Amino acid sequence: MPPLFQRAAGRLSDAAPGWLVETVRPVPAPLRRWPMLRMALVVTAPLLVGMAAGHLVLGLLPAMAAMGTALADRGGAYRVRIIRMGATGLAGTLGYLTGSLVRGHGWWAVLVVVAVSVLSALISTGGAAGSVAGLQLLVMTVVSAGVALPGPPGVGALAFLAGVAWAIVPAVADWPFRPRAPEQAAVAAVYRALGRLFADHDADARTAFGTALRDGYDTVLGARSTAAGLDPERTRLIALLNQASLIRHALVSLRHEGREPPAGQAAEVEEMSEALAAGRAPREPRCEGGSPAEHALCSAMRGAAGLAAGGEVRADQLPYEPLGYRGRFRDIWEKMWYGHLTRVYTLRLALCMGAAAAVGEFGWFERSYWTTLTVALVIKPDFGSVFARAVQRALGTLVGTIVASVVLLLVPYGPALLVPVAVFAALLPYGMQRNWGLLATFQAPLVLLLVDLLTRGGPELAVIRLVDTLAGCVIVLLLGYLPWPGSWTAPVGPRFADAVSATAEYLRHAFDPGQTARALLRRRAYDALADLRTVFQRAMTEPPAVSRRITTWMPAMTALEQVADATAATAVRVQRGAPHPSPEAIRTLADSLDGIAADVRAGRTPRELGPTADEALEKVDSAVRSLRDTVAEDRSG
């Protein structure tokens, strides 16, 4: 992607309203050349093989499978990436077979699409892998039910699986040579974000560190060791993440004392991140402990440097919560069958998909499967705002169809079409990292060119695609958005209350002697804050009438982060010799937070807080009172 184009897209995103530029991910990954080249390779290579065999369309199904599987690759440990991409490919194969069997069966096909929609919605509750797999199941069911793809269904399924395998191979090609590369890169990213906190402690820097730390835990804990016992390298990386968290809290504690970190420590942390990325030992930090916070910061820095140099992991450096398969399946099962949001999403998706499929049976649109596909992609709730995606997809498709029309007019049918196919495929990763509109801008001409290889529809395909996509967006807005008042307001309030409760539980045990319990509760509190920020960012992409109300939560979110930081910083000082707070004062403040959470859930104004006479908790007490006042002001306003 040329730098000029990237800068122009960035300026457009900054100038446009939030609902027009909603990002596909809350924090976009940096653009790299390899994902773009890999996407172009996995899509065009099957077509080249088909062309060499004398039948270009034979490579169409593997190319579609490779594209969907490659789009499911969102980084992380190799094992996690294989599971996510493999699940997506298998679900796509099942969808292809299902759609092929019901193609041409009229209203029975409509009922099957609705049933698959329900199954897709339930599968989507199974985390990141379930989300993309459920979507691919639905997408391929719709495609194969609407398009007569070449070959019998059994042969087509084998071709589809071949495309899935082809997409996975280049994604994990360096696994045998660098098995820990993703985990090491994730840990190095945490220390880079930590270095920024030394110079700048604003909200953006704190959010960047929190996001990097959570991604680091997800990546390291998601990698399964092939060793028979404990994996020393994985253990070391987890300990390094824990040390980064300790450094961050010691830094906050130091600023609570009115001090700044010693000059040069930011550079030492940056050098440590470079050493972690390169796999070499960093320099020993030069620091001296004076106050409790300075002593804690120095100790945490030296502990991190020792771990980065390959030192032995101490028992107190490794508190984390192993969640086994049984626990994961239990969580997924509860979300699938007992989650209110899951039931609502399932009903909305089935209603809209049924309406779109029924419209196709009336023959109002020439290629109505595009209408159904649009519904499946736009209404998915874990991808962000339904309203924003509907608008963005319509605008992106408009631009993309214009570009596709020009390409189909200028490029003759045949192998020459593979050149623009490769270009648009390479641009897909960039569009994914920006927003849904830009993704649709690149995806629309790519899909049109692939369909043209099969049907030879010519430039008229672009107009058909645009009309069908707009119809799908209208169905989503009329049936999946407007009739559901719950979709007009993002669930910021409930998530805020959950974060307050998690912070209260952390405060209640932050000064207990058990190191592991403290660390686990601290991580849960900061994970809840990260979830809250994600929900807030998505809510800001709703229409202005909704997003203006959501902005009132920003001061309360900032106040809650200050409570968590004050708790962590005070705990650090107590561990380094500062006076220990009384159990009564701790219980009083934790109960106050629980009361604020209960009042938010009930829609009440939080009650006044009683006195907390304990100097050791002065910073925490002040932060809790500020939180109460901020929430009370927002609720009364």
TrEMBL record:
Belongs to the YccS/YhfK family. It is a multi-pass membrane protein. The chain crosses the membrane at residues 39-61, 82-99, 105-123, 155-173, 345-364, 370-391, 398-430, 436-454, 466-484. It is found in: Cell membrane. This is Putative membrane protein YccC. Residues 357-478 form the Integral membrane bound transporter domain. It comes from Streptosporangium becharense. Its main location: membrane. Signal peptide: none annotated. The keyword Lyase does not apply. Keywords: Cell membrane, Membrane, Transmembrane, Transmembrane helix. GO terms for cellular component: plasma membrane.
